[in-house]
Amino acid sequence: MELQLYYDRKERDTDPIGIFIDTFDVDFQHRFSLSERQEIIWGLGYRFSTDDFTNTFSMSMDPDSRHDQLLSLFVQDEITLIEDCLHLTMGSKFEDNDYTGFEIQPSARVMWTPRERHSLWAAVSRAVRTPSRSESDVRINSRVLPPDMLFPGSPPVVTALFGDRDLKSEELLAYEVGYRVRPTDVLSLDMAAFFSDYGNLHTLEMEEMFPEASPSPEHLVIPLRIDHKMDGKAYGIEMAAELQVLDWWHLKAAYTYLQEHLHLDGDSQDIRSEAAEGENPRNQLSLRSCMDLPRNVELDLWARYVDSLRSQDVGSYVTLDARLSWRPHGNLELSLVGQDLLDDHHPEFVPEIIETAPSEVERSVYGKIAWRF
């Protein structure tokens, strides 16, 4: 049995909004054997949070203070159907929250090991992402237009983003299959394929303009409201290999392919969210080399290729990280690390918030001294 409790207080008194959040959390888990071939894990959780926001014109919460409770229960049953050959794991998480109410997240996984060096597995699961406090209650005034900008004689205009208290949880139904093989003592291979079906994905919908008197002067508001008018699918493969070249030299390679398709509902007016399908790299490849050299010296190299982000106009890039370390004493380690050594700088993503300027990852070198005791 395991019991965990924590208390957290978060404070920030700077623009665009002041935040004071207190969180108390308790989590209990219990594992026991029902029989020689069946093991149960179950647990209970409770979280209570209270917050207080200091609203500003640019960002505010309504209400500015709120108490939230989250109750959760999970149970998982690990069953050995055939000793050292066939295993089944089933379970579910049950959750009651103050935003969407009662949620169920079941899962099932089967592992088949026909031979000692071969394993095949498959899984299906449902997961949800419940709305956050900000997605439910926030208002962000993103832009103010002076008089006469919208039409001759128009008052000032504020464009604003609003949360929605009626939001549903974003849903995921995931299917996975995989195969693991160790053809020799020095080589292992992993392959997996996945298909993910998403529903109720959040969008930004434009609503009718309305007048507002406070704060003065009287102005018009062009509202964008968070809604759930998009669904999507993602599928791909993941492959990994490990090779013990020599007793002192170890190689690891990995490749990922990802394809995404997002679709707006017919009545959606969102013009941005669908472009998110191009915000993740379609191909990623990495190769790691770990060498244990004489005199307690280690040399690690990590090369990565990351495909372009099509909707963000971020090109593909290749990076190389290196780490050289030396242990002059059993507990003392000196190391020199270089990151992104192939470029002075390069972009890797564009922030979702339009007003935030994109930054680039620069080449860096640092040293480290570690003493373990």
Distance between the termini: 29 Å
Number of strands: 22
The H-and-E topology, N to C, reads as EEEEEEEEHEEEEEEEEEEEEEE
Q: What is the CATH superfamily label of the largest domain? A: TonB-dependent receptor, beta-barrel domain
Could you walk me through the main structural features you see in this protein, from its secondary elements to its overall organization?
The chain has 1 helix and 22 strands. The chain has 373 residues and is an all-beta fold. The protein folds into 2 domains: 277 residues, TonB-dependent receptor, beta-barrel domain (Maltoporin, Chain A), CATH 2.40.170.20; 95 residues. The protein has a 20-stranded mixed beta sheet that branches. The two termini are 29 Å apart. The model has no long low-confidence stretch (mean pLDDT 94).
Tell me briefly what this model is.
This protein has 373 residues and is mainly β. The chain is 1% helix and 70% strand.
Key features?
Maltoporin, Chain A; 2 domains; 22 strands; two-stranded antiparallel sheet; 70% strand; 373 residues; mainly beta; single chain
Helix and strand topology:
Blueprint: E1 2-14, E2 17-35, E3 38-54, E4 59-61, E5 65-82, E6 86-97, E7 101-115, E8 118-129, H1 133-137, E9 138-145, E10 157-162, E11 170-184, E12 187-206, E13 210-212, E14 219-246, E15 249-264, E16 283-293, E17 297-306, E18 317-329, E19 332-339, E20 345-347, E21 360-362, E22 364-371
Parallel strand pairs: 10-14
Antiparallel strand pairs: 1-2, 2-3, 3-5, 4-9, 5-6, 6-7, 7-8, 8-11, 9-10, 11-12, 12-14, 13-14, 14-15, 15-16, 16-17, 17-18, 18-19, 19-22, 20-21
